[in-house]
Amino acid sequence: MDDISRRIEHTVLGPETTPEDVHMCLAAASEHGLRACLPPCYLPLATDYDVPVTTVIDFPHGQGAIDAVCGAARAAWDDGADELDLVSNVGLLKAGDDEAVRDRISEVVAAVPIPVKVIVEAPLLTDEELRRVGEAAHDADAAFLKTATGFSDGGATVEDVELLSQYLPVKASGGIGSWETAERMFEAGAERIGASSGVTIAREYREQRGES
What we know:
Helix content is about 40%, strand content about 15%. By secondary structure, it is α/β, with parallel strands linked by helices. It has one domain (about 5-210): Aldolase class I (TIM Barrel). An eight-stranded parallel β-barrel has the order 1-2-3-4-5-6-7-8, surrounded by seven helices. The radius of gyration is 16 Å and the shape is globular. It starts with 7 loop residues before the first strand and ends with a helix.
């Protein structure tokens, strides 16, 4: 499979996600050469699939006690996660406590030997707040910034990706349902795409290239 496929994380994270949904996601990711993003409780289901797997931590609000969050991060690593998507605390950021935002991220990064992507929930933030959380995540040695959980109003935008990519590589997520939209995010500087429509995006990309 081509490099574009490995930059797409086929995602299943809704509150009604069943084990069968996860198996379908993993099978589709394996068939199309994609990555996958799963709830942490379903990580053991991924062991039979040759798919790089991300899970979410402190999802979807980023308000858990830090000891519990770090424990969840370590448990996810033990269960086979290749990467973690950690939700940052929007309330602390809006309160102006950038140090606390940075320290929370830093503790999780230090707790595991795998990449940590920080979900900033961009639809809830101003440009100034995006810059601050981007700087906090960079200073905490996070590996990526991720635009959104997909559970608040709005999703990834070209403008947010362009801004965030000044600080760290970006995973654009939220409202990306086609290759046309994904391509705009890549052109804006995104390194990854997270989407429940990962198979559709990959298929449309191949069709555009005249591939079967």
